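Researcher: I need the complex structure. Ligand is iron/sulfur cluster. Inputs:
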Amino acid sequence: MFKGLYIHVPFCIKKCRYCDFYSVTDLSLAEKYTKAAVRNISQITDKFDTVYFGGGTPSLLSAEQISEILSAVKIAPNAEISMECNPNSVTENYLKEIYSAGINRLSFGVQSFCDTELKMLGRLHTAEEAIAAINSAHSVGFENISADIMLAVSGQTKESLRQSLDVLGTLPLTHVSAYMLKVEEGTPLSRDKRLLSEIPDEDSTAEMYLLAVRKLESMDFEQYEISNFAKKNFECRHNLKYWRCEEYYGIGPAAHSFVNGERYCCPKNIADFISAEVQGKVTLENGGSESEKAMLSLRLTKEGIAAEKMSAETAKNAEILVQKGLMKKEQDSFKLTPEGCLVSNQIIIFLGIMP
Ligand code: SF4
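Model: Output:
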């Protein structure tokens, strides 16, 4: 089985208000970063059938830099090669170039099609720019395009969410990730009392999530993970590796790896990443335990957990959740319902599958 390769590109023009991902705004380091990424990737002998440029903002690298990094990767046939893009950092020409370089899946950080929400989040693009970028990507040949949207952001209403989803339904998308806003400690959002007070309460958040699930399903985006929806056969193969507890390498500062049963990460320091012959490694924990596998597969709403892999006690508790409408049993597997997805952490505890 091939492993996945994640490449963390730690550059952003400006930090969004809610974000705590590792990134820097000094774009002059991009060339040195590229060389370091190539150096590290060249040392790996494995072939990859999924490659994922995440960030940060990978689309801040030039098409030549993306191409240089990709030429160091040993790519298996029919590999999925994804790249996250910000709508305001791509031109049609750039999209053509990265398509020629081998990128075959794009993931746009759209977040909302409502300009006031985008402003609140500190995003640099408008709804119109996001629409134009997605259409442009499709017109240059991309057939696998995803958009991220956010739920329960400050000031969002069911109506504004419905409008965003309506726009999304008109675009040539094959995949949608719908994440709930999480207030991360240390971010500007976490210190902004007004914005915090405008975050929808728990009940409204639950309603928005269920609205998104139903609306996306009515547009043929089938839910396959708590926050992910895809048209038939367009599930993100790279992210499926995470949830199926399969192995992957992570390159770049803050990137995580799971190799030979060990989970580790590269420290969040771009200067060290650039100067080191081999990127740093901080061991996190051993991965791949049965309970970790069960916990991750619970996230997969189409696959779920096979009943035969559950202890008698866990299966008995899962049956109780079926009665409550929080799980369903199909083909001898227990799967979360959309209502169950809303309380997945409590369900993990109730089922006794905490790693
Ligand atoms: S959300 Fe994306 S673009 Fe915004 S700061 Fe975080 S990584 Fe950068």
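Model: Summary of the prediction. The chain has a mean pLDDT of 96.
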